């Protein structure tokens, strides 16, 4: 696997020099200053690429070309937005950036309730606390009919917790949920989140799937002609929020996507942290089943807590058997066509002196450095055991 690293551009506290020192050779980035629907000019793409190459690195993956909500709402009807998306893809391909990550989550991108959850003596992690989420949905946002979307025990726990929350705690919870985490196209106020939810009110899971299939039926042929590998990122978390549908959460969702437009260009970002937040997702099996479609991997682990809550765990800790996933991804690389899958350490803990510094939530240096090193060691051991096994077979 090719070691890559997400970089948020010249304003990222983590510099290209730091990234090279971490051992990564590829960069994952985007032109974050363009709004969803705007075309990225080739000159701006090549200017960023030149900065990356001057540092002795290569721009391997674009994460992400923003996906306008109009496309999620209208599918092929969003002709102007799809045309702009394709034009940006063309310009990236012209610069040689041919693996493109994107996601199809309505309104909100990835979502957490706590950005500094203390893990006993191991630093701070991102966390999704289901009861806190219900407190926000029912009591702070006061979404119409929100109660109908939550189990009675969660509603009772949320009612209890709401009664004891201070104003600062309420403000922090709201900011964590709607301010927009790194890599999100935008943040929300309470009012425009409610308006956005209303605009999606009549869209079902099946409608969203149909709109994604319609988008892919137009874009995939263009991607094939350009030699581009599309890599859709799963939902994070992989279940509906605020009554909004999500359609990239389960093995069934992934099968639908790949069957909708069968093509090597219609691929997947295998994000173990996103998919791993659901106990009914068997990640080693999914990595084996969809291996030929996996063009990019986000490797991180989460510890599931039972009621839908989860927090970011160490790469080899958490609820997902990361070694089994790595073995499946290795096997995918040795399939047809043999290739090196770019992978990046996704979300890292906040450790030591970085807790006192400005960092992008989830995108610390030390936490991702630690994760990358653990993943590198695990992959080396797998290769060694593979080599050992092959050698043993040859000797027999
Ligand atoms: O949520 C994740 O696992 C991410 O990798 C966050 C990403 O920035 C985003 O959601 C997809 O590109
Ligand atoms: Fe991810």
Brief synopsis:
The chain has 396 residues and is α/β, with parallel strands linked by helices.
The CATH homology group name of the largest domain: Divalent-metal-dependent TIM barrel enzymes
Overall SS class = alpha/beta
What profile does the largest beta sheet have? 8 strands, parallel, barrel
Give the CA-based shape: globular
Can you tell me the residue ranges where pLDDT is under 50 for at least 5 consecutive residues? Answer: none
Q: Would you list the SSEs in sequence order as H and E?
A: EHEHEHHEEEHHHHHEHEHHEEEHEH
Q: Tell me the helix content.
A: 40-55%
Number of helices: 14
Number of domains: 2
Q: So, CATH architecture of the largest domain?
A: Alpha-Beta Barrel
Overall CATH class of the largest domain: Alpha Beta
With strands numbered from the N-terminus, the spatial order across the biggest sheet is: 1-2-3-4-7-8-9-12
Number of strands: 12
Question: Which key terms come to mind for this protein?
Answer:
binds fe (ii) ion, 2 domains, TIM Barrel, 396 residues, 8-stranded parallel β-barrel, 4-stranded antiparallel β-sheet, alpha/beta, single chain, 12 strands, binds 2-keto-3-deoxygluconate
Structural features, described:
The protein has 14 helices and 12 strands. It is an alpha/beta fold and 396 residues long. The protein has 2 domains: 2-110 and 201-395, Divalent-metal-dependent TIM barrel enzymes (TIM Barrel); 114-195, no CATH class. The strands form 2 sheets. It has an 8-stranded parallel β-barrel with strand order 1-2-3-4-7-8-9-12, surrounded by 5 helices. A 4-stranded antiparallel beta sheet has the order 5-6-11-10. Strand 7, helix 10 and strand 8 form a beta-alpha-beta unit. Helix 4 packs parallel to helix 9 (205-226), helix 5 crosses helix 7 (167-178) and helix 9 packs across helix 10. The protein is globular, with a radius of gyration of 21 Å. The mean pLDDT is 96. Fe (ii) ion binds at residues 233, 271, 273-274, 298, 346. It catalyses: D-mannonate = 2-dehydro-3-deoxy-D-gluconate + H2O. Keywords: Iron, Lyase, Manganese, Plasmid. Its EC number is 4.2.1.8.
């Amino acid at each position: 696997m090719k070691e890559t690293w997400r970089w948020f551009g010249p304003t990222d506290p983590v510099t290209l020099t730091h990234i090279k020192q971490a051992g990564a050779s590829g960069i994952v980035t985007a032109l974050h200053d363009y709004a969803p629907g705007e075309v990225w000019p080739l000159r701006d793409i090549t200017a960023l690429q030149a900065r990356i190459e001057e540092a002795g690195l290569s721009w391997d993956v674009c994460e992400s070309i923003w996906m306008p909500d109009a496309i999620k709402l209208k599918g092929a009807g969003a002709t102007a937005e799809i045309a702009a998306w394709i034009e940006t893809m063309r310009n990236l391909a012209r610069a040689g950036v041919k693996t493109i990550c994107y996601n199809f989550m309505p309104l909100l991108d990835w979502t957490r309730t706590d950005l500094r959850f203390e893990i006993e003596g191991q630093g701070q992690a991102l966390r999704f606390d289901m009861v806190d989420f219900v407190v926000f949905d029912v009591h702070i946002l006061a979404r119409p009919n929100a109660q109908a979307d939550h189990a009675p025990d969660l509603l009772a726990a949320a009612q209890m917790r709401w009664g004891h929350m201070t104003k600062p705690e309420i403000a922090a919870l709201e900011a964590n949920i709607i301010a927009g985490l790194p890599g999100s196209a935008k943040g929300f106020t309470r009012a425009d989140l409610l308006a956005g939810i209303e605009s999606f009110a009549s869209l079902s899971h099946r409608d969203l799937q149909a709109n994604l299939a319609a988008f892919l039926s137009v874009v995939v042929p263009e991607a094939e002609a350009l030699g581009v590998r599309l890599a859709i990122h799963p939902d994070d978390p992989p279940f509906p929020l605020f009554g909004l549908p999500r359609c990239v959460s389960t093995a069934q969702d992934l099968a639908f996507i790949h069957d909708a437009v069968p093509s090597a260009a219609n691929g997947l970002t295998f994000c173990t942290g996103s998919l791993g937040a659901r106990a009914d997702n068997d990640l080693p099996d999914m990595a084996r089943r969809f291996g030929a479609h996996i063009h990019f991997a986000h490797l991180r682990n989460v510890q599931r807590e039972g009621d839908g809550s989860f927090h970011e765990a160490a790469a080899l800790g958490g609820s997902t058997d990361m070694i089994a996933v790595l073995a499946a991804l290795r096997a995918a690389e040795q399939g047809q066509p043999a290739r090196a899958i770019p992978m990046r350490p996704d979300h890292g803990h906040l450790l030591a002196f970085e807790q006192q510094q400005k960092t992008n939530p989830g995108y610390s240096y030390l936490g991702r450095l630690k994760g990358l090193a653990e993943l590198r060691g695990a992959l080396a051991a797998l290769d060694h055991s593979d080599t050992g096994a092959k050698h043993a077979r040859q000797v027999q």
